[in-house]
Amino acid sequence: MPENRPATPAGQRRGQGEPALELLVHGVGGTTPQEMLGDPRTVRITGDDTAGIHRRADDADAESRFGEYSGGLTADRSADPLAEPSADRARQRPIPEAYCWSNLTSGNSARALWLLLLPFMVANLAHWMRPAAPARHRGQRLYDVLVRLVALSLTVLLTAAACEVALDLVAWQCAASERCARDKSWLGPLTGGWWASPGRRLVLAALVPAALTALLWWLSHRTWSAYESASPPPRPPGPARPLPGGERPALSLPGFWYGRRLVSRLRAAHTAAGLLTVATALLTAAASHDLRPGGDAAPEILARALTAVLAAGWAATVLVAVRKGRTESEPDERIDRWASKVLPGAALGALALTAVHAAWPRPDWASSAQLPGTGVFAWLALLQGALAAAIAVTAYVLHRAAPPGSCAGRCAMGGLGGAAVALLACALGGVLTGGVAQRVADWLDKDGTPGVAGGAIAGPPVLLSWQAAVIPVLLVVVVAFALVAAVRAGRTRRRLTPGIVESYEGEPRELESRSRQIARVVAWARLTDSAPVLIASVTVTTVLLGAGALAGAARTGLPPGPAAASWPGPLPAAAQAVQALGSWLMGAMVVLLVAMGRRAYRDAAARRTVGILWDVGTFWPRAAHPFAPPCYAERAVPDLTWRMCTWTARTGGRLVISGHSQGSVLAAAAVWQLDPDTRGRVALLTYGSPLERLYGRWFPSCFGPAPLRALSEEVDCWRNLWRRTDPIGGPVMTGEEDADEVDRGPLRDPLHYGRTPEHPLPAPILGHGDYQADPAFDAERAALLDRLDRLAEGREAPCVPAQPERRPERRPER
Question: Lowest CB count within 10 Å: 78, 160, 340, 486, which one?
């Protein structure tokens, strides 16, 4: 216990003379301090505009006035000025304060543009979806390396797509075509004068992908300073309950939320990869001319020398990217100076040399057809498919090696979720990059169809047209799954309807429509558990269609429409329609993301909607892709840990950290980081929590049954509230013998079935929100505080479900 803890007066029970605090943490989408605290007058007591802790104005100095009403709190006076303060009420009503972190994901309007980094975020998720095998298993290292290679390939894909648009479509094809450049005055510098030669046009156009790489580097560096540089408390967490394999839970390690060294190293590797991709595109185009039979010797020697330089740069980049991963046993603040400084600078120097070589005068060099080297998209698709297959095999081996009980049959897709997500990240990257190329080609060649003879330009690589053609088929699979899910929900509703009224004993019976309404909400809430089946279906379809697109492009060398011209019956027309529709859908997806970003720039409500996407996807540190949107938990978890440590050390009081939805995940992660003394004065209350239903199934190594069981043994008392109508939250100790010691539920929703004299109007179905309206919330919070009292006094007190009051007191929405 801390030395400055206030002494409890003799004869006074602990809890009557020491303050109690309820630290509220909101969920996805964010909310205001006023809504969380139920008071329009709030003050920020610590933090900044990005994330801070707020209290009611009347409670700003509540600790200094604690005990002046025989243990009552000023918070009770502000809530009900006519009520008499009492110690019992104070024990149920601690000082409320709210931690607001919504601005970490949706506060700045520019953050809405993170939508364009969606493939990078999905690839980063694949890293954390590894099965729960022991960390010393050799497959863990291989899994991490494979995921980082997939992430690196996505950076290359994005830069290659920028090169395809700027170098190939604009500088190589359109600028060389009088028909294409005729009505485009902005192409003037590329069609005449010193820049008119092919090499110089390419060098000028290379500024676009190079600037894109620089922008990604700057965003990654800037967001690290703003989000992920929060240091943990000076005291490291104490020993945590070991997992079945004898290891500490990953989230209890002091360096889990501070991976500066890895992010810096990966940022350097990906920046170098982007610059080297641009240099390779320039050198490939120039070398196709320099290495032709009968060419000059000097350009040929320079081309071969630069090829060796770029090959060495690629080897160094891959080596840096796959080196040892995160060091979580301690906060790793060291920086690999060679990787972080020298590698990007060397890549920039190689790009500069290549640009000089490409711009060298070549009087007989003329551009025609597509830019040499566009076949890289096919090779990237093959590489990404091979890496995804290797991840699947490695994940299967790790899943089989996991200790008994570490998954308990709850892992999504049998441990193959990471491989599926990695493949979907590649597919999403292909759709976005291909959609941009298709739309730019259509815009440049308004009178023709890209890839079809007779147009002003040759268009983008054929593979992109084939990839566009498979998108409508993939959408058909998704729609079919949605229809099947709707049918299943309807059957579940009909099966549940008769039993709904039986769970409301002693209440008047209503029309059957009330039971159908409740059963429908429960049935739709259960569809969340079908997500693994949907992901598996989309993954298998993506693999088959992707392989077909790759084979079709390689075999025919034509877009799907012209390639099917000799097919019988209506197949040629169908192929042409699918190609056109797919191309439109690819472009529409890119336009939709940009439009959402622009709307979010102007509309705060839209910014919050966009921010919800990141509340789940950006919880995890950037362990695979440094250009992914920043991890807000690397700021939020240290914030919560610092607050709990400093408040309990300063006051010696009791603390309940109360988290809803995604806030419950942050709360659990913060409790894991506490030292044993602080953890002994902290209770955990979660509600609407996706800890097991989402995180436990998809991220078993960090939130599987074994880590959650270890957390329940670490925390003196933890209660979790859940409802059947909640599509996100659920029990956290599924399948455990002592699950009732943690989970309380399912809570009744709605609280009342029909109309009564006390409740003449129908009670709403709350679903995922407003858990504080249930009397179980106040009862469980009071029971947690009482449990902390008894433990401090040395008396054992079982953590059993509290008994709710008969008549719930309506609390303000939070």
Answer: 486
